[in-house]
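Table 4 source record.
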Amino acid sequence: MAALGAAALAAQIASAAVPVQGYSIKAAYPHDPQAFTQGLFFKDGFLWESTGQYGASSVRKVDLATGKVLQKRDLPRRCSARALRRMATASSASPG
């Protein structure tokens, strides 16, 4: 009997409407087509991006409007820039 109840519940869940989220493009910006983006964040008007694969990874500071790489630090060939995270500093950390 419990198996029938579980099966009925599973059928109800499976047939429930799944919400669909939409999107709209607000703007488009130039970007290096050779950059294999692994992580990014936007801060103080600049895009910070980690790119690449093993042997070709870098961390970049990019001008969002032009796509120009303003600063770039290549990583050792043995590394891959899989993610990038902004770390809070004492001056930017919020209390609590």
